[in-house]
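Ops channel
N.P.: pipeline sanity check, posting one input/output pair.
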């Protein structure tokens, strides 16, 4: 596999992750509105949808990190050689 193929695959995977993040965010908004409406019609009181929001926020955080966080960097050849030497000793 050439470097161009690897870069193409990495870029494609990154775009797929970004698309998945935006879809998850859309689901979060829709489900959040539905839960808030259910809470509103059930007589308000304790705002229990916050627990679902909290869980969704954790999922969004990890999805966002995957989509927009630091890019995966391949280890340099020097680091690979250094690690191989550790196995030899």
């Amino acid at each position: 596999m050439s470097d161009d193929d690897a870069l193409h695959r990495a870029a494609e995977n990154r775009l797929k992750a970004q698309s998945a993040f935006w879809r998850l965010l859309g689901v979060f908004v829709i489900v959040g509105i539905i839960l808030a409406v259910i809470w509103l019609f059930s007589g308000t009181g304790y705002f229990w949808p916050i627990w679902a929001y909290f869980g969704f926020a954790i999922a969004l955080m990890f999805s966002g990190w995957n989509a927009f966080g630091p890019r995966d960097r391949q280890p340099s050849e020097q680091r690979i050689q250094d690690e191989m030497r550790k196995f030899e000793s």
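N.P.: looks fine end to end. Helices lie at 3-41, 49-68, 77-88.
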